[in-house]
Every structure is written in structure tokens, then in C-alpha cells.
Amino acid sequence: REAEDRYIQANPRSAAIHGASQAAMPGGNTRTTLHYSPFPVCIRSAEGSRVTDVDGHSYVDFINEYTAGVLGHSDPAVKAALTQAIADGLTLGGPSIYEHELAAIISSRFRSMERLRFCNSGTEANLLALATARHVTGRPAVLVFDGAYHGSMLYFSHGASPLNMPIPFFSTPYNDAAAAVKAIERHAHELAAVIVEPLQGGAGAIPGDPAFMAALRDTTRKHGIVFIMDEVMTSRLSPSGVQGRLGIKPDMTTLGKYVGGGMTIGAFGGRADIMERFNPTAPNALPHGGTFNNNVLAMAAGHAAFTKVLTPEAIDRMNARGDELRQRINGLAAARGLAVQATGLGSIFGIHFHRGPIRNGHDLDEGERGREREISDLKTLFQLDMMAQGHYINRRILGNLSLQTSAADLTAFLAALEEFL
Ligand code: PLP
């Protein structure tokens, strides 16, 4: 309560904006994930690795737009490309000079995406990939994994969201290859697709075991089921995503977040024989619209990001820094014998007040049973404490680095964490 009182005292403008925003938005918020009690800080501006709120506090950003902010804030090359695109005119209503090049770069990095199409969000990319898989296989159902987040209407935390698409879904525990293979073999005749996050983000930054991912690839191939890797969040984990790290080629891949250089974007693609069904000159071509699919700001910003900033070396450096951060967090916790651990891969991390192995959300639930209140209080305290010391992190303690997160930013974060421990 004391920490919360201090937070309220320190953030009068954010409190007022939150109060006013209740009038037209439920809970004063247009994205459930951005809410935390008593109210979230309202961000006014951002530059490099930092964000500044309306009460004037500057934070090192560990939220980074929920992993979309790979570039950090206000990258000069992306800003210049956007300025040029704005000067040339918006909402052009035809193919522009950018999209074919952006598509070609993405296809060259994510080799499974032999052909791809753009859309407006990761959610839309997943909905389109699933609809495509259902069409090409003529089968209705989809295998997902407990805890998965593929978008607001494709959400499987502790059961299925009431808003989920009316598609027959089967689900098995994440990282349990035997259970997945069994479910696939049992339901093969009705399964259109298996969709998986190569690292479950929302469920706690839990990486997929290479053997689990390989089992999904092999079993789906055997049964003619479309294997979809949702790399909306994980494509940042190597220059060619987690599929590149693992050497696994899915039938379809979905992207979003940073590939538009910070602008609104989604992309879905895969095997040429699947995606060529969208070719408007193909017999019975599949219809795929979307007024803003090739909106010039996303195309120009994405193009600048990939050609000028997101070099393979820069991506590798960012992920190596994340690996080191995780190692050091775990070192600090182990030295004190505390039930605290960092999960994740490369530049994505989660911090859990949990001792045992974390292979999926069930492990977390099991380890936290009977300690729910304590853990919720610890997370609240941790977030408020870290924010008071200038580190912007969410209450679930799922964080990530950007290309701009510096060694000094990480040293300060680790010092604050050590103090908290
Ligand atoms: N899939 C995954 C794995 C995600 O992490 C997200 C967003 O966090 C989505 C899909 C949905 O993307 P969007 O928020 O762009 O709709």
C-alpha cells in the first residue's frame, strides 16, 4: 500500500488522464494489457532507449511496445523514411515503390516465406493463416497449445477466451511433444493446422524445446497438416527468427510488430504452392483485401528499418545482450538462494518468483499454487519499485531489449534488481 501511495503521489497527471479516459473507453483503456492498478502512467514521448511520462519521469524502456520496439525509439533512418513518405503523399490507393522490396527482404530472411502478403496486425496475420490452412486442407480444426496467445480472438490462457473464433480447437500442454504427437495422430483427419509460438510470450517468456518444435514439424508433415509458426513476437530473436535458429521450415509463418519499422503491420506467408492461391490471376483465386495492407507509412518505415538498421549483426548483438542479462539475473537470485528466475531467449525475458523448471504455464500454476496472493504482491512491488528507480516494466514482468538498450541501461537495471532482491 505504501508503494502504491507513493506511486499515486508521484503521478498526478497520469491519474487525471486515466480518470478522464474512463468516460469513453471501458476502464479508460483501449488495450487490456496496458492496464495495471491503480492506473498506468501515460507516456508523453520517447527517444533512444527511454520513454518519458506526462509527469516528467524518464524511464529506460523494458516494455518496448510489447516487443514491437526492436529499433528503440525515434530511429533517425526510420524517421527520415517516414518524413519522405509523408511528403510524397498518404493513402495512395495503388502499389507503392516500397512494398515489393520489403516483401523481398522479409522473404530472403525468413526462408519459409516463399511468398507473403501484408495485413495490419499479428492477429489478422494469424486469422488469415488459419483460414488459408482450413481452405487448402478442407479440414476444420486447429491444434493450439495451452497458454498460447495468437491475438485477441485466438487466446488460450487457462482455457479458451470467450472471444475466440468459432473454430474447433484442440489443445495440449506446451513443450510436451508426446502429448502433441498423440493429439495430432488422433485428430489428423480433421486437423487443418498446428499453430505454435516458438517461445510462448504472454504465458511467461517460455522457449519452445527444439525437440518439441521438431516433433511438431515432422508429425504435421506426415499427415499433410499445415504447420504454422507464429513468429509475430519471436522473429526478433535472430535475423531469421526462431525458425532460423532451429533450422525448421514451417509451411506458413506469421509476422507483425517490428517488421513495419514501428508502424502498424502484419504479414503472413509460406510455401509458394499455398500462397500462390492468392495470386489474382490464379483460377479460383482467394480473395484477400485490406485497405491499409500496403499503407505507405508501414511499407516505407519497414523498408528503412530492414535496409538501414536491422542488420543481422545488430540483431545478434541485441540478443546476446539479452542472454547475458538473463544469466546475470539468475546469478543474482542463485547467490541469495531465492525463488526467483529469469526465463526467455535472446532479447525477450520474463522474471518469475518461482524455483522449479518452467516448461509451460502449468509448471508456473503448479509452483505458485497457494502463493497466488504473495506472488501478485511481489510482482506489484517489483514493478512499482523498478519504475520508481527509472525502469519501465510491466506488472507481469515480461520484458525485452531494443537495439538501443545500452550496457549502462542493463547495469542500472541489474543494480535496482539486486537492491530489490
Ligand atoms: N501472436 C503473438 C505471438 C503475439 O505476441 C501477438 C501480440 O502480442 C500477436 C500474435 C498479435 O499481434 P497484434 O497485437 O499485432 O494483433
Automatic annotation (TrEMBL):
<dbReference type="GO" id="GO:0030170">
    <property type="term" value="F:pyridoxal phosphate binding"/>
</dbReference>
<keyword id="KW-0808">Transferase</keyword>
<dbReference type="GO" id="GO:0008483">
    <property type="term" value="F:transaminase activity"/>
</dbReference>
<keyword id="KW-0032">Aminotransferase</keyword>
<dbReference type="Pfam" id="PF00202">
    <property type="entry name" value="Aminotran_3"/>
</dbReference>
<dbReference type="InterPro" id="IPR005814">
    <property type="entry name" value="Aminotrans_3"/>
</dbReference>
<dbReference type="InterPro" id="IPR015421">
    <property type="entry name" value="PyrdxlP-dep_Trfase_major"/>
</dbReference>
<comment type="similarity">
    <text>Belongs to the class-III pyridoxal-phosphate-dependent aminotransferase family.</text>
</comment>
<keyword id="KW-0663">Pyridoxal phosphate</keyword>
<dbReference type="InterPro" id="IPR015424">
    <property type="entry name" value="PyrdxlP-dep_Trfase"/>
</dbReference>
<dbReference type="InterPro" id="IPR015422">
    <property type="entry name" value="PyrdxlP-dep_Trfase_small"/>
</dbReference>
<protein>
    <submittedName>
        <fullName>Aspartate aminotransferase family protein</fullName>
    </submittedName>
</protein>
